[in-house]
Structure formats: structure tokens, C-alpha cells
Design brief:
This protein is of the alpha/beta class and about 375 residues long. The chain folds into three domains: about 5-105, Alpha-helical ferredoxin (Fumarate Reductase Iron-sulfur Protein, Chain B, domain 2, Orthogonal Bundle), CATH 1.10.1060; about 150-270, Rossmann fold; about 280-384, 3-Layer(aba) Sandwich (Rossmann fold). It is about 50% helix and about 10% strand. The chain contains 20 helices and eleven strands. It has helices at about 10-25, 35-40, 50-60, 65-75, 80-85, 90-100, 110-120, 125-135, 160-165, 165-180, 195-200, 200-220, 230-240, 250-260, 265-270, 290-295, 300-305, 330, 335-350, 360-370; strands spanning about 5, 65, 150-155, 180-185, 225-230, 260-265, 280, 285, 355-360, 375, 380-384. Helix 20 links the parallel strand 9 and strand 10. Helix 1 crosses helix 6 (about 90-100) and helix 4 (about 65-75) packs across helix 6 (about 90-100). The longest helix is centred in the middle third of the chain and has 20 residues, at about 200-220. The radius of gyration is 21 Å and the shape is globular.
């Protein structure tokens, strides 16, 4: 038996948006073929179509079961279903609404655990020594400076990346300096809000988002060219800022402006002359993060850049399937996460590479736990 939770709390705006998204679903089932949890578990309620049904039922009946909450928790938010969906169902947005509805009814111990994990990851003071203990890479070269800066960009440092893998941001700054671009780096405490948002701490997320929008709008209006993200999970969150506001909200237009100026490092470099750079390793296999191919719709971009240096694209089985990292998912859903990781590593290693490269710190750390060969951010291959 699973206890029924009654009297759900949902705003009219969220209900209207959820209804709009639910009505756009034609129940074709195409999403089942690309959903990682459905592929592993075989339960329709662990598929996008099944979770849409659970959210619809909760809204119509004003109640849901704790079993429904488990099905919602098992979603990776990879958004592979959005890439597959012929009707353009905004499943990611609907899932956020569904989780917000159900989150207040979560058990106290589980809520406390999620709170502690969230605050630990988002506090530089607390996480820095933890990150140092689990450090993946060290800075391997001297800092470079642009000979003559032609433009200025803001590099999002990330919440955990500076502690876990400082060489990523260091390499990016050197590469951009080689291209005569001045780099300002955000503080480690300047979070994009993604972790709060995905763990249904929406008020905390919105505070961060508004603070970022105000700060970055001022910088952009003062001549900043772009906001650069090297973690695709952060990039997709910032690009999705407009979805967090009604069109009548004063922050909506500012969010659109910030979103339009935000680029993944691959997106930014794809328009630059990289002829002065080289790759330190060619025999690599690239893992495309979900936030890159499904969230930002930039699939294939990194490999097109690497191909300029002689890299030959490797065909990876089920390349559209999540590696299991998915933000904090690997902490809360360890069994599923590790199973997805092991499947991914097997597919990535099929071509016998010397190294695996990716575009997101979460994927990098997760894959490295199960990989016998090095896993790096693809920009670390660039030799300046």
C-alpha cells in the first residue's frame, strides 16, 4: 500500500502551464525508446509518457501517492524524450512542475538528506576541502595573457569544477588568451541555480537567477561580449532562464537578453580561427552530455571542432542515452546511475581509445569512477 497525499498546492500559472504541456502530448510512445529509465526498468510509469500521466492524475484528482514521487525521482531530466518527441512536448518544464507539486510531501529524513547534499555542493567553503580530496586534475601549464585583448568574456567558474578539476577553467582562459580575448571569471559562489531548481528548491533557485540576471545584464551592457560556460549543465540552465518567468514579468526580457549572450565554450570557439592550436591526443572517444545534445541542441558541435585537428569521429552505441550523472542524481539514485555509467563506458571503450573526453564536469567525474582510462574535458586537449 502506498499512502495517498491529498490537497496538493499548485499555483494557477503552474497548473495552466502543466495543462498546456500535457495537452500537447499525443501519447505516441516514441519517448519510450529513448528513455534511459524505461529501458532499464521496463515500467511505463518510469517513462516520460507514464510520468505525464502521473502529473495529469495529480492535477485532476488533487492527490498523488508516494509511489508517484518515486517515479518522478527516478527521472534523470536528460530530456532525450524532447529530442525524440514529434509534438514538441516540453517535458522538462512539466517535470519541474510535477516535482514542485510533490516535493512538500516528501518524508522529513529524505528532505533533510537532500537539503544537506544541496547546501554542501553549493557552499565553496564547505565543498572546497571535499573537492580537493576527490580532485580529478591539477593545473598543468603556466597562465597565459592576451597580447592585445580584442574583447572580454565572462567565464562561469562553476560550483564544483574549480575544486574538482581546476585545469579545465585554466585551459579555457589560456586558449581564449591565445585568441586575444580577455577573460573575467565568476566567483565559485556565483551559482547558476541548476541544482536548487532540479531539487525543487525553487525559491532558492529564483533568488540566484534574479541576482545573476541583474549582475550580468549590467556587465553585458557595459561591453561584455558573452557569458561562457564550460559545464553544459550550467549552460542549459542559464539558457532556460526565460522559462522561469511569465512574459509580463520585468525579469523576462532581461532573462532573454542574458540567455542570448550565453555560449557553451564549444559554441563560442566554433566561430573562431583555431589554426594556432593543436590537439595533445587524437585517439579519443567523445561522450556527448545530455545537457549538450538534448538541452542546448548542440549535438555534434564538439566533434566538428576536434575534426579540424585530425580527430576522426567514433561511432558510439546509444550515444543519446544518459551516462547516469545527471547533476545530483548519482548521489540519490546510485544503482540506476551506476548501471547507466557502466553501459556508457562499455560503449565508449568499444573503439579502444586512449582517453574519453566530454563537456560537463558531472559526466567527467561520474565516468572516471568507472573508467580504467583517463576522462577529461575536451578543451584540455587543446595545446596552446
Amino acid at each position: 500500500m502506498h499512502a495517498e497525499i491529498k490537497n496538493i498546492n499548485v499555483s494557477d500559472a503552474s497548473r495552466d502551464k502543466a495543462t498546456q504541456i500535457i495537452e500537447s502530448c499525443v501519447h505516441c510512445g516514441f519517448c519510450l525508446a529513448t528513455c534511459p529509465t524505461y529501458q532499464l526498468l521496463g515500467d511505463e510509469l518510469d517513462s516520460p509518457r507514464g510520468r505525464i500521466y502521473l502529473i495529469k492524475s495529480a492535477l485532476e484528482q488533487n492527490q498523488f501517492s508516494l509511489k508517484s514521487l518515486r517515479h518522478m525521482d527516478r527521472c534523470l531530466t536528460c530530456r532525450s524524450c524532447e529530442t525524440t518527441c514529434p509534438s514538441g512536448v516540453e517535458y522538462g518544464q512539466l517535470l519541474e512542475i510535477g516535482r514542485d507539486i510533490m516535493e512538500p510531501k516528501r518524508g522529513k529524513l529524505q528532505s533533510l538528506y537532500r537539503y544537506i547534499v544541496r547546501k554542501t555542493l553549493l557552499s565553496p567553503t564547505v565543498f572546497r576541502p571535499i573537492g580537493y580530496f576527490y580532485r580529478h586534475s591539477k593545473i598543468t601549464s603556466k597562465s597565459a595573457k592576451p597580447e592585445k585583448a580584442n574583447s572580454t568574456v565572462l567565464l562561469m567558474s562553476g560550483c564544483v569544477q574549480p575544486s574538482l578539476a581546476p585545469n579545465i577553467n585554466h585551459t579555457i582562459k589560456n586558449v581564449l588568451s591565445k585568441l586575444n580575448i580577455e577573460v573575467l571569471e565568476s566567483s565559485q559562489s556565483q551559482c547558476c541555480g541548476a541544482l536548487d531548481q532540479h531539487l525543487s528548491a525553487t525559491d532558492d533557485a529564483l533568488k540566484k537567477v534574479k541576482r545573476n540576471i541583474d549582475h550580468w545584464t549590467q556587465q553585458l551592457e557595459s561591453g561584455l561580449e558573452s557569458i561562457i560556460s564550460s559545464a553544459s549543465g550550467c549552460g542549459v540552465m542559464i539558457k532556460d532562464y526565460p522559462k522561469l518567468f511569465k512574459s509580463s514579468d520585468p525579469y523576462f526580457q532581461k532573462a532573454l537578453f542574458v540567455s542570448s549572450k550565453t555560449k557553451d565554450i564549444a559554441e563560442f570557439l566554433s566561430t573562431r580561427d583555431l589554426s594556432g592550436l593543436n590537439l595533445s591526443e587524437l585517439n579519443v572517444t567523445y561522450h556527448e552530455p545530455c545537457t549538450m545534445q538534448h538541452g542546448q541542441e548542440l549535438g555534434g558541435l564538439v566533434e566538428s571542432i576536434l575534426s579540424q585537428f585530425g580527430y576522426i569521429k567514433k561511432t558510439v552505441k546509444d550515444s543519446h542515452i544518459c551516462c547516469g550523472s545527471a547533476g545530483a542524481y548519482s548521489i540519490f539514485e546510485t544503482k540506476i546511475s551506476n548501471q547507466l555509467r557502466d553501459n556508457k563506458i562499455e560503449n565508449l571503450n568499444a573503439s579502444k581509445p586512449n582517453m574519453i573526453v566530454t563537456s560537463n564536469i558531472g559526466c567527467l567525474m561520474h565516468l572516471q569512477k568507472g573508467s580504467s582510462i583517463p576522462v577529461k574535458h575536451w578543451v584540455e586537449l587543446l595545446d596552446v
